[in-house]
Structure formats: structure tokens, C-alpha cells
Design brief:
Distance between the termini: 27 Å
Largest sheet: 4 strands, antiparallel
Helix content: 40-55%
Structural class: alpha+beta
Length: about 400
């Protein structure tokens, strides 16, 4: 299998790279490069720049605003965005609920929601995980009971990323508690976050940030027209969504960019009066991660090439679980390498209020995000289906065990 880029693909890569370099606002690029927090306004600004170019929903079908690019161009586009680095379009809209709507939704839903997702006129969040129903998602208990032209929703979602900004949430809800199998009684609902009865409570994460939330539903009335597809078929739509999410979680370009920055910073830090990048122990660790990343890149290219040959079947590729496992492990490994570079400067610094003699910072400015990022990225091997669950999928769907 030839996994090298064609001349046409190289030309396309150069076009994308040039656009990202010239169109991405400098302040956003700086924060991304330094691993600092990217706010809602940054994501909205960049996605609307992409949408004006026609690239905000590049992987969608042409009839819904997509580009018509094949899998290889899609791969190149994503990698260049990650290596720039530039913010991704809002994952929950563009990569999750959008494809579910254009694949399983009705024409009215497609006409209303898809253009708004592309231009990020609505901020979406994901209502899947619940207390006690994370990796075992099929055990979810949030209920939706039919009452005339509405469903009445009661329950709780948790780990709901960026729900504090959300206009809409797409939820898995139990519409048939008596189904023979748990998976058979679940439906996929679109819920306006302004509906009475919804409460969002923040969860402070280990890095000190506010990224995730609890969402409570107390007799929330949702129009039946907000049901996507068929009632009690939501598990099928969730599997479709999660298959897409796990492929994106590989994030080869993110790890490439992070390793490039680690090399750069390791040249600025000294150990025994020599640059850290020259230390044998560090070079060995760095080389090990780079080799693993190259193997992951080759694996992802094989999956992309197979997708191009097979065409869009609408079903998740079980190989996406392999990409999810290895991609998350490598991303976490890069945060560990960055801590090796930062060393004791990763410790949080708080000025002694009783001693004003030390007014100078004790660490370089770039060291600040290292420890928070390390702690925050522990989640990567859990969300999107924990790595343990992915191993079960591989054993069943690929190895036939």
C-alpha cells in the first residue's frame, strides 16, 4: 500500500498550510502554540473565518456545506490545522451532532441546524455520560416520557464539556425502560438549553479550570420534533458518533506539534551546563515517543486509505478504537516529556504576601501551562470511551474473540 502523498495532495497541503498561517489571528496562534487556554470567543472567531472560506465543515457532504474532499485531503487538512496549531471547529457541533443530523435527521432538522452549526450560531454540548453511566453508557437513566407533542425529560448528565456556554445539548435519553436490552430503549434528543427545568453546575477540574459541568433536567419539556431519527434507535446513532470521535482523538498533528515545541524548549533548558536536548536519557525518551507517533501515523494513513477504497458506509470502523488508544497514550506521553523539560518550574508559584522583596517571576513564562496541561490530559484515555472499553471492542470486532 502506497501511503505517500501524490503531487496533487502536496499542492493541497501547501495551500492549506499557507491559509492557516495567514488567516489565523496572531493572538490566537500564540496562545495555541504556548498551550494556553483558548476561550469561546477564540473558537467562534476562527470557525467563522473557516466558514467564510468554506472549510468549517470540510468533511461534511457537499450538499450540506462540505468541500467534497476525499479522505486523504480530509486527513491533510486536520493534520495541518493541528500542526499550525489552530483551534479545531467546535467538536460537539461539527464532528458530533452535525454528522448525526445529516445522516439520520429529517429534512427540516437538516435545513435548520446544519447552517447554524457551520457558522457556530449555536454552541452545542454533549449529554451522554451520567453518574454511574460513563464507560457503560448503555446503563444511562435519564428518562424521556412521551406526553402529547412533547417528551418530559428528567435526570442528570455529567462531565458535560463547555455546557456553561451551550445554547443546545444533544442527549441520549431512555424512552423505553422495559426494552429487552438496555441499548434498545435509548433515543437521541436535541434540547434547547434555555428550556425551563435545566440547571448547569460547574465542576472544577484537577488543573483548577472550569471545563466540565453537571447538567440537571427537572420535568424539561422537549418537542417531539426534536427527536433525531426513530425513537429507541439512539444507540445506533451514538455508536456512529463515537466512531467519528475516536478517529479524531488520535490527533497525530497535535502530537507532532507538541514534540516540535518540546525539542525547541529542551534546547533552551540546561542540565549539567549542557542543553537538555543533548542529555542521553532525554533523547532516548523523546526518540521513543517519536517512533510510537510515526507508527500511529502510518496506522491512521492505512485507515484513511481503506476508508477511501471502501467508501462511506455510515458505520464506524472498529480500527478507530486502535487509533483512540494509541493516540491518547502518545498525547499523554508528550505532556510528561514537557514536564521533564520544565522540571521544578512546573510547580505553582504563589507570591508570599508577607515578603514583597521577590517581585520577579521564578520561572520562564512558557513553563506555566505545563503542569495544568499534564493533569488535564489525563482525561484523554477516558473520554470518547475509555481505553479499556476500546480493547474490548478490538477483541470482539477485529480479533473475533
Amino acid at each position: 500500500m502506497d501511503l505517500s502523498f501524490t503531487p496533487e495532495e502536496i499542492t493541497f497541503r501547501d495551500e492549506v498550510r499557507t491559509f492557516f498561517r495567514e488567516a489565523l489571528p496572531a493572538d490566537i496562534h500564540k496562545r495555541m502554540e504556548e498551550g494556553r487556554h483558548i476561550g469561546k470567543d477564540d473558537i467562534v472567531t476562527w470557525q467563522r473565518i473557516l466558514n467564510q472560506k468554506g472549510w468549517a465543515v470540510a468533511h461534511w457532504p457537499v450538499e450540506y456545506g462540505g468541500t467534497g474532499w476525499g479522505p486523504m485531503k480530509q486527513y491533510i487538512f486536520q493534520e495541518e490545522m493541528q500542526r499550525t496549531p489552530a483551534p479545531s471547529p467546535l467538536q460537539f457541533g461539527v464532528f458530533m451532532v452535525g454528522p448525526v443530523i445529516y445522516t439520520f435527521g429529517n429534512e427540516q432538522q437538516k435545513a435548520h441546524y446544519l447552517p447554524r452549526i457551520a457558522n457556530i450560531d449555536d454552541w452545542w454540548c454533549q449529554g451522554f455520560s451520567e453518574p454511574g453511566s460513563g464507560s457503560d453508557l448503555a446503563s444511562l437513566r435519564t428518562s424521556a416520557k412521551r406526553d402529547g407533542d412533547h417528551y418530559v425529560v428528567n435526570g442528570q448528565k455529567t462531565w458535560t464539556t463547555l455546557a456553561q456556554y451551550a445554547d443546545w445539548i444533544f442527549c441520549l435519553v431512555r424512552t423505553n425502560p422495559d426494552a429487552e436490552k438496555q441499548q434498545q430503549g435509548i433515543s437521541f434528543l436535541l434540547i434547547d438549553m434555555k428550556t425551563p427545568g435545566i440547571e448547569v453546575r460547574p465542576i472544577q477540574t484537577i488543573d483548577g479550570g472550569h471545563e466540565v459541568n453537571e447538567v440537571f433536567f427537572d420535568d424539561v419539556r422537549v418537542p417531539v420534533e426534536n427527536l433525531v431519527g426513530e425513537e429507541n434507535k439512539g444507540w445506533d446513532y451514538a455508536k456512529f458518533l463515537l466512531g467519528n470521535e475516536r478517529t479524531n482523538i488520535a490527533r497525530v498533528g497535535v502530537s507532532k506539534q507538541r514534540l516540535e515545541r518540546i525539542r525547541q524548549l529542551a534546547g533552551q533548558v540546561s542540565e549539567n551546563d549542557r542543553p537538555l536536548i543533548e542529555a542521553p536519557w532525554f533523547r532516548e525518551k523523546l526518540a521513543s515517543v517519536e517512533i510510537e507517533l510515526k507508527a500511529l501515523e502510518m496506522t491512521q494513513l492505512r485507515v484513511v486509505a481503506a476508508d477511501a477504497k471502501r467508501g462511506n458506509t455510515g458505520k464506524p470502523d472498529p480500527a478507530s478504537s486502535i487509533l483512540k488508544i494509541k493516540g491518547s497514550q502518545i498525547q499523554q506521553a508528550t505532556t510528561e516529556l514537557l514536564l521533564d523539560v520544565v522540571g521544578p518550574f512546573a510547580l505553582p508559584y504563589q507570591e508570599d504576601e508577607d515578603d514583597f522583596s521577590n517581585e520577579m517571576p521564578i520561572a520562564p513564562d512558557w513553563a506555566g501551562p505545563a503542569a495544568p496541561t499534564y493533569f488535564n490530559w489525563r482525561k484523554i484515555s477516558i473520554y470518547g470511551g475509555s481505553n479499556e472499553i476500546q480493547k474490548n471492542i478490538i477483541a470482539k470486532a477485529i480479533l473475533g474473540l
